[in-house]
Design goal:
The protein has 457 residues and is of the alpha+beta class. The chain is 32% helix and 26% strand. The protein contains 14 helices and 23 strands. It has helices at residues 2-15, 37-56, 72-78, 80-83, 100-110, 164-168, 171-178, 223-240, 288-297, 323-334, 376-389, 403-413, 424-428, 449-456; strands at residues 19-21, 33-35, 61-63, 85-90, 97-99, 137-140, 144-146, 156-158, 184-193, 208-218, 248-252, 264-272, 275-286, 303-304, 311-312, 315-322, 335-338, 353-356, 367-371, 395-397, 417-421, 430-435, 441-445. The strands form seven sheets. It has a seven-stranded mixed beta sheet, sandwiched between helices. α2 packs across α10 (323-334) and α3 crosses α9. The radius of gyration is 26 Å and the shape is globular. The structure holds zinc ion. Zinc ion (ZN) binds next to loops.
Length: 457
């Protein structure tokens, strides 16, 4: 069932132009995807909803867009050069590469009694061909390149593996220019890159992905309180955009498994078709990053409280969300198949119908305009309505096929409102607005339509 659900989502995403495999005409590129017309609209809307809630509607958070390429010393200071690695083994016969920790976990599970005493990697054979495996090597997950014409050690550059470091190295710039007082935050959305050994589950884990991160700087001692605040914010944001509460839960990372910089980490998890998976991580990064950068750069990155004169290095609470993963969550959570259909008035009532129940503020198309025919008086009215609505929302225009079919095309891409222009519209200057979720139809005066939509989105 769950495997079928993923197959259905991947197929719908391809068929309706949400997500395509990258460079598909050349056979694709492992776990890299392109967002089509509806995918990019959905992605932009999710990013905007996040930005609105976290920057625009708040006094205490500002935005940033730092470069993907950064001075390599950043990654030395942050610990990524040394510590951002996965343990790898190669098969000596078929040359396939595996995560050693995954192989060890898998073998401990399949061999009864081995749980307490995990077997050595030398006792494990290649799961694909049974060949002998190499010793474990640490493999750095950062993509490496060279800047400028010379390829030597001094020209090495990395594609950033997280957006957070761009925020930390700009801390002083922002304190000086924005006049923000602690507690305050810096948010940024942008691409990050990790050379994952085992990407997968569609857009859940990819090597190129977009992050939406926010670093919230607080006075040490107030960090536990702020952690609770941001943890709850994450849950409220997703449920506020219509994701079912019962598909979300918190996962508290056990103390002994925390990253070296973290005092506490809690993930907001979603129940994906393959099981619970991390959606939005909240970490108390303490003063680790600012202290590391202060030490490596020789710059003073402490904060001075102007009223008390107190000087300290702030603690950081970081809610970090993957945009692609958020998009997959909204797609899965909105997806519903109605066997036998839900339309009772057309010939289609025995067919299977697909509905994406996107929240109106993230739906890739907000409103579809459907004139009953393609001819003059109706077409003119329909296009005039389009000209008014498309100044504020994404509008689709569809004048082919039966109205029932057109409704279903819009249901399948999650359009919350359809406007039908019919022959009565010529005389009563009104249209029928059909609501996706209730299928209720309402007659609304043409000059009231924009107000009607604005009241719902
Ligand atoms: Zn092999």
């Amino acid at each position: 069932m769950s495997e079928k659900l993923m197959d259905d989502i991947v197929s719908l995403a391809k068929r309706r132009g949400f997500i395509f495999p990258s460079s598909e005409i050349y056979g694709g590129l492992g776990s890299v995807y392109d967002y089509g017309p509806l995918g990019v609209a959905l992605k932009n809307n999710i990013r905007r909803a996040w930005w609105t809630a976290i920057v625009q509607q708040r006094d205490d958070i500002v935005g940033l867009d730092s470069a993907i390429l950064m001075n390599s010393k950043v990654w030395e200071a942050s610990g990524h050069l040394k510590g951002f690695t996965d343990p790898l083994v190669d098969c000596k016969s078929c040359k396939r590469r595996f995560r050693a920790d995954h192989l060890l976990e898998a073998s401990a599970m399949t061999m009864p009694g081995m749980k307490e005493k995990p077997i050595e990697i030398s006792h494990i054979r290649c799961p694909e061909c049974g060949g002998e495996l190499t010793d474990i090597r640490q493999f750095n997950l950062m993509f490496k390149t060279h800047m400028g014409p010379v390829e030597d050690e001094s020209s090495v550059a990395y594609l950033r593996p997280e957006t957070a470091q761009g925020i930390f190295v700009n801390f002083s710039n922002i304190v000086q220019t924005s006049r923000k007082k602690i507690p305050f935050g810096i948010a940024q959305a942008g691409k990050s890159f990790r050379n994952e050994i085992t990407p997968g589950n569609f857009i859940f884990r990819t090597r190129e992905f977009e992050q939406m991160e926010m670093e919230f700087f607080v006075k040490p001692g107030t960090d536990d309180e702020w952690f609770e605040y941001w943890k709850n914010f994450m849950m409220d944001w997703f449920t506020g955009l219509g994701v079912r509460r019962e598909k979300l839960r918190f996962y508290e990372h056990p103390k002994e498994k925390l990253s070296h910089y973290s005092k506490r980490t809690v993930d907001l998890e979603y129940e994906f078709p393959w099981g619970w998976g991390e959606l939005w991580g909240c970490a108390n990064r303490t003063d680790f990053d600012l202290k590391q950068h202060a030490q490596h750069s020789g710059q003073d990155l402490s904060y001075r409280d102007e009223t008390t004169g107190e000087k300290y290095v702030p603690y950081v609470i970081e809610p970090a969300l993957g945009l692609d993963r958020a998009l997959l969550t909204f797609l899965l959570d909105a997806y519903e198949v109605i066997e036998g259909g839900r339309t009772t008035t057309t010939e289609s009532n025995k067919e299977q119908e697909t509905v994406l129940r996107f929240h109106p503020s993230i739906a890739p198309v907000t409103v579809a305009i459907l004139p009953l025919n393609k001819k003059e008086p109706l077409m003119k009215i329909a296009q005039e309505i389009r000209g008014v609505l498309n100044k504020r929302w994404a509008v689709a225009y569809d004048d082919t096929g039966s109205i029932g079919r057109r409704y279903r095309r819009q249901d399948e891409i999650g359009t919350p409102y359809c406007i039908t222009v019919d022959f009565d519209s010529i005389n009563d200057h009104a249209v029928t607005i059909r609501v996706r979720d209730t299928m209720k139809q309402e007659r609304v005066a043409i000059d009231q339509v924009a107000g009607f939509i604005a009241g719902k989105v």
